[in-house]
Amino acid sequence: MSTAALDAPGAALAAPPGSAEGRRLGRAAGRSALPLRRLATRAGALGLGLLAWHLAASHRLDLGPVTFRNVPAPAEVARAAWSLAQSPKLGAHVGASLARVLGGFLAALVAGIGLGLAIGRSRLAGDLLLPPLEVLRPIPAVAWIPLAILMFPSSEASMVFITFTGALFPILLNTVHGAEAASPRLVASARSLGAGRAAILREVVVPAALPSMVTGAAIGMGTAWFCLVTAEMISGQYGIGYFTWESYTLQNYDDIVVGMLLIGLLGMGSSVAVRALGRLAMPWTRGGRA
Fold first, then answer.
1. Which of 132, 157, 204, 227 gives 20 to 30 Å between its CA and that of 76?
2. Contacts of 198 (CB under 8 A, 6+ apart)
3. Domain spanning 74-283: CATH 3.40.630.30
4. What pTM was estimated for this model as a whole?
């Protein structure tokens, strides 16, 4: 059978149902339809969320401890978003936040992976580094703001530092977990073949830890946005967090929701980009997901 015939839409029907070729074509057809079904499901979930928001805000629902009397409806937020999109301030706010997040996240990526590999593969490094890091890990981003202002000469550096602290620990802990989970048999096999410590780290430990590293990086990116917005609310002059806080002080409730949605979209897009880059770095993990 020719390649063109196999690629034709009716090839799965033409192949014998019980043959290996028929099963392969059936699986390929199922995989091609899967993204459309998932896209429709996700679009439907977003639509239901918008509908619930519209009904609650338009009817000014009062559900006891939660009230929607002052919450703007989706149409009002859409008008405010369109007004912001036409303003030159949007580029300045988004650009400032992206630069701060990217700077802090990249620094956290380098430090988290380096420290995580050292702690995960060396008992001495774990004994020396893990206790102080575990003491620092529960400290929230808000608590770091006064000290960051004292430590750094500029507010920009202090905000990047707060973003760094937020992204560091998810990357660090996931890297430690991935490095510890590297197969001892593979390590012993590589050592028996003459591989040194650097080669074992590069060829065995890092590939085994990469899935955990990517997961930690995706989580760290989301945490970085959370911490950055907290910092911008207090010491920023531009940025999405500053825009949201300023809208609250001016009682522009529509803009508050616009700022929240911008934070959510930028955080989601950043995490998706991190996962996509992770899949490119791990071609052996690609496969059909349900």
1. 227
2. none
3. no
4. 0.78
